[in-house]
Amino acid sequence: MNEKLFELLEKAKQDQILKNMLLNTKKEKDPVLAFCELATQQGFPITVGELFAEGEEYCSNLLKSCNGGATYPREGWDDSYEMFFASLERI
Fold this sequence. Notes:
Elements: H1 3-14, H2 16-24, H3 31-41, H4 48-63, H5 80-90
């Protein structure tokens, strides 16, 4: 999870209203966009593209590593958005 998401999660741990607002973004027509807009309003600017690119970049870097990189591509990558909500729902 990137630094901005981690800091937002930490803030939500201390602020039940923020936590509920974040959880409610999942009910929106475009939940990822709603989440990014709320995060930005709270001082943690993040874009939809940034969310989706983060996990893909990590997997790509594994494959191009010159010192013991993965010998085969992973079937998928961690979804930072879903990981954020999994963590949020546990607090």
